[in-house]
């Protein structure tokens, strides 16, 4: 799975940066560090156990995967410099890049790769679904890893490198219990310190396999208010931020004092109705709600028009895009469906979290949308940890959330909508969807695979497993003095090639 757009969280981070900027303390500027303002604080820094986006913003710069997505989201060499595939597609052999070391100086070997993957599999961690076709992971020699499969797996490279939840970790770092608070990776920057509630500092890794970073370090500051983060950027207190208020985009596009990126993303946001609870277990009732939802109003209210309304997960422009437009707002059709189902729901429990304000805003819009159907929406706003618990326990009628950083079509649909999917909290089940998603996982012909996912996506939307809402834009801004950085469609925050100052 890719990162659920869920995941804010608690309080993490270590103390090497003193006090708050409001007290005039140097937070990295004096050292030449890039100061990056992110909108929330990581829950922890173990890449195998966190699913918080704020954690992965930091960890993208600390850890590596065997392969990684390039700017076009094609998988490219990383810790593995090359690989071979058996003629029957049932084994892949990866050749590790020689001379790579962890931040503590210990060498990377095939045993580290085996340990990392076995940890995910044996402990059934959040990315275990990526190994569902894997039958064995073996170290052939210190520089070679073989992965054996039960079936052809055309998206194996994406599974292994799509995001840092599949990072190669240090066994010692895990076994001494320090990985969650003091992670040791092989990436371009090493963890240097934290200040709980304020910041995390990384320092350049001079031995990085891709060459030493041009920056001496990166300091991530936690600034939850987008207006505050933007003001700090404009005042020169930070160099980069992804906390950009969407309502300010038209104004910022003409501001020469900063660089603004507005990049289409593979993220998506959705409503999910609990198919394990009556009356939402009747597809006609779910369809009635889908017909009542006013997507354009939700897009405008949550993103000020910077997002793109979409009735499926995969956005236009993506090679896996499937056109679908069944659910234009139609209250008469919604009432007819409720009548056919013999259902007259009066109340709906809507689960949202104030740590993702767009969920609260969208809930307010949908509450108005459902009034003509006689449904009163009780908007239940909780902290994100509670939201996760309530979702996992099935304690909701409807909820809103999103999924971030998807690449392969399997990332968009399988875990969320297969009957046995690890993240199918809404308890949707359709054997036709299962068959199409299972087929897509092993189909090596690209056109046949595309048909499998088009079939699955259409059935998912017809059956209202999710009410897909929109694909947001990646909004980021930075100082004109920052060079070598690009906003990415997958939202991976990479500072390895960045520099501050003159052109480089």
Describe the structure.
By secondary structure, the protein is of the alpha+beta class. Helices cover 27% and strands 21% of the residues. The protein has helices at residues 53-59, 110-122, 156-161, 171-175, 226-234, 249-252, 283-292, 295-303, 331-341, 357-370, 384-392, 409-417, 431-442, 446-462; strands spanning 34-38, 67-69, 75-77, 80-85, 91-96, 134-141, 144-149, 189-195, 199-204, 217-222, 240-241, 259-264, 268-273, 308-309, 347-353, 376-382, 398-403, 467-471, 473-478, 482-483, 499-500. A seven-stranded mixed beta sheet has the order 8-9-10-1-11-19-12, with helices on both faces. Strands 14-18-13-17-15-16 form a six-stranded mixed beta sheet. The model is unreliable at 1-30 (pLDDT under 50).
Q: What fraction of the residues are assigned to beta strands by DSSP?
A: 15-25%
The biggest beta sheet reads: 7 strands, mixed
Low-confidence stretches: 1-30
Q: What Rg, in angstroms, do the CA atoms define?
A: 23 Å
Q: What is the number of helices?
A: 14
Mean pLDDT: 91
Classify the helix fraction into a percent range: 25-40%
User: What is the straight-line distance between the termini?
Assistant: 36 Å
Strand order of the largest sheet: 8-9-10-1-11-19-12
The rough form would be described as globular
Helix/strand-derived category reads: alpha+beta
Strand tally is 21
């Amino acid at each position: 799975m890719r990162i659920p757009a869920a995941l804010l969280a608690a309080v993490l981070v270590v103390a090497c940066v003193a006090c708050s900027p409001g007290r005039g303390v140097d937070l990295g500027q004096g050292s030449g560090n890039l100061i990056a303002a992110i909108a929330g604080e990581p829950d922890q820094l173990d890449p195998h156990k966190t699913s918080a986006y704020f954690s992965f913003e930091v960890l993208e710069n600390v850890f590596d995967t065997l392969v990684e997505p390039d700017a076009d989201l094609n998988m490219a060499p990383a810790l593995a410099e090359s690989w071979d595939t058996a003629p029957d597609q049932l084994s892949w052999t990866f050749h590790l890049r020689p001379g790579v070391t962890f931040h503590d100086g210990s060498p990377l070997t095939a045993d580290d790769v085996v340990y990392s993957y076995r940890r995910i599999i044996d402990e059934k961690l959040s990315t275990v679904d990526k190994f569902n076709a894997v039958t064995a992971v073996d170290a052939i020699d210190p520089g070679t890893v073989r992965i054996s499969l039960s079936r052809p797996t055309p998206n194996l490279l994406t599974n292994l490198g799509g995001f840092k939840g599949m990072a190669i970790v240090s066994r010692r770092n895990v076994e001494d219990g320090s990985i969650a608070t003091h992670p040791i990776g092989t990436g371009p920057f090493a963890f240097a310190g934290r200040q709980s509630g304020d910041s995390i500092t990384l320092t350049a890794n001079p031995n990085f396999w891709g060459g030493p970073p041009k920056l001496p370090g990166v300091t991530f500051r936690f600034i939850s208010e987008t207006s505050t983060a933007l003001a700090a950027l404009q005042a020169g207190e930070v160099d980069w931020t992804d906390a950009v208020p969407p309502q300010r985009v038209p104004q910022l596009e003409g501001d020469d004092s900063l660089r603004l990126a507005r990049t289409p993303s593979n993220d998506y946001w959705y409503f999910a109705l609990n198919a394990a609870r009556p009356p939402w277990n009747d597809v006609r009732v779910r369809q009635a709600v889908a017909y009542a939802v006013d997507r354009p109003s939700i897009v405008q209210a949550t993103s000020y028009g910077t997002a793109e309304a979409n009735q499926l997960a995969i956005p236009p422009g993506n090679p896996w895009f499937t056109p679908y437009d069944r659910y234009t707002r139609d209250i008469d059709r919604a009432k007819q469906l409720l009548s056919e189902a013999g259902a007259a729901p009066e109340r709906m429990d809507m689960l949202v979290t104030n740590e993702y304000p767009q969920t609260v805003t969208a809930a307010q819009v949908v509450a108005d949308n459902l009034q003509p159907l006689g449904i009163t929406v009780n908007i239940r706003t909780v902290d994100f940890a509670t939201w996760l618990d309530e979702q996992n326990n099935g304690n909701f009628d409807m909820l809103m959330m999103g999924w971030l950083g998807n690449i392969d079509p399997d990332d968009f649909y399988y875990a969320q909508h297969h009957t046995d999917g690890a993240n199918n909290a809404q308890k949707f089940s359709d054997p036709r969807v299962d068959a199409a998603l299972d087929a897509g996982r092993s189909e090596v012909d690209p056109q046949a695979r595309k048909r499998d996912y088009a079939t699955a996506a259409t059935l998912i939307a017809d059956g209202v497993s999710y009410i897909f809402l929109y694909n947001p834009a990646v909004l980021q801004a930075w100082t004109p003095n920052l060079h070598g950085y690009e906003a990415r469609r997958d939202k991976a925050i990479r500072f390895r090639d960045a520099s501050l100052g003159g052109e480089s």
